[in-house]
Amino acid sequence: MKKALIAGLFAFVVGWSSAAVPSYAEENSNTGGSSQGELAPSARSAILLDADTGTIIYEKNSHDKLPPASITKIMTMLLTMEAIDEGRLKLTDKVRTSEYAASMGGSQIFLEPGEEMTVEEMLKGIAMASGNDASVAMAEKIAGTEEAFVKLMNEKAAELGMKDTHFVNCNGLPADNHYTSAHDIALMSRELLKYEGITKYTGAYQDYLRKDTPKPFWLVNTNKLVRFYTGADGLKTGYTSEAKFCLSATAKRDGLRTIAVVMGAPDTKTRNNEVSRLFDYAFSQYAMHSIYKPGEVLGVLKVQKGSVPEITIQADKEYNVLVKKNAKTEDIRHELQWTEGLKAPVAAGQVIGKLSVYQGDALVKEFELTSPVEVKKAGFWKLFKRTTGKLFHVD
Fold first, then answer.
1. In this predicted model, what pLDDT tens digit does every residue of 281-334 receive, in sequence order?
2. pLDDT band at 16 (very low <50, low <70, confident <90, very high)
């Protein structure tokens, strides 16, 4: 198969261009001409980005390696949601609490050795109450031991391009060599948000565990922004004396979902105020510009020697780019490119080209183009019929 890419009118469904946050940004640490740090002056580090495209709007010391405290649990929730999505786990599955899990200190839902809760209840305990015990119980459910689960955490971090990260435990309790960065937290937060069901838990302000038992446990979300900031529905707070006050938050308004990460703030009020300031800036200054809407036909792509000769391609979601609200959008254009001479077999999800979005001559965003279906190689008889049938206009 030729590697050259040629501009075309047709393309496969557009996928994420990368799990990593793109290196370009319309603005970063020098936001709107103001000096670095004004949006988050008290934070040790911070980052603000658009969750859809990964465009970085603002950053401050975003690659500094710092203790994340309970923000670590974003990765624990991510691996849990991934297991559910892949069918290895169900929300209704029972999770038994080991003595080790029950022994966790710090924030907890006070699990007792041998106590069982469903996966969904454990997720609530992690997302809302930041339960260290629930995190270990889920880790043991998925991987057998916390150590094995931590190995999965670090493997997933490497897969996502989290180069500033090394995990030692699944809950963020203080430990040597346990660190990450605001940039990497944004990466795993963005990945977690691909599982739309997660905000059912991270965005709830209060709930109950053991509601119909003699020991009901009232859950109140440690992230107060989900109640007091319009559009906020996650994700995770963190605090230790070493890490100070940290928060990875997300909010959505008018189709724009943002992720704001603040690390090392001096207190809860300052942390929440600076995240709110980041959100306010994003929603007041930026908007999404649509390139393709779900269901729009992108075209028909021919597949040489395939079990089917061609496939009609439709967008499976809305594809956007982030633009300044006062920017002219007339000069935004896009090109669909695909690999020349595509031949069967083609695997579902195989990269076969790219979508490039430009503003004027500047490249704004690239998306990979992937096959939505598998196309097997046609057998001899089918190819023979197809070749000879062209003489009689039949296949």
1. 999 999 999 998 888 877 777 887 878 877 777 787 788 899 999 878 888 998
2. very low
State the Cα–Cα distance between residues 181 and 263, nearest whole angstrom: 8
| Type of residue found at 212 | D
Catalytic residues: 70, 73, 130
Decide if 321 contacts 357 (C-beta within 8 A): yes
Q: Does domain 5-20+293-389 have CATH number 3.20.19.10?
A: no
From residue 302, alpha-carbon distances to 13, 14, 298, 344, 349 in Å are 14, 17, 13, 10, 17
What class has domain 37-286?
alpha beta
pLDDT given at position 368: 80
Q: Return the exposure string of 83-112: e unless at least 16 CB atoms fall within 10 Å of the residue's CB, then b.
A: bbeeeebeeeeebebbeebbebebbbbebe
Whether cis (ω within 30° of 0) applies to the bond prior to 67 is no
Helices (H), the chain: 73-85, 99-102, 119-127, 132-143, 146-159, 182-192, 199-202, 225-228, 268-285, 380-389
Q: Where in the chain is the domain with CATH 3.40.710.10?
A: 37-286
Q: What is the dihedral of CA 277, 242, 74, 251, to 10 degrees?
A: -10
Phi and psi angles of residue 8, each rounded to the nearest 5 degrees, phi first? -145, 170
Q: Using alpha carbons only, what angle is made at residue 352 by residues 162 and 17, rounded to the nearest 5 degrees? A: 25
Instruction: Return phi, psi of residue 270, to 5°.
Output: -65, -45
Indicate whether 79 pLDDT > 60. yes
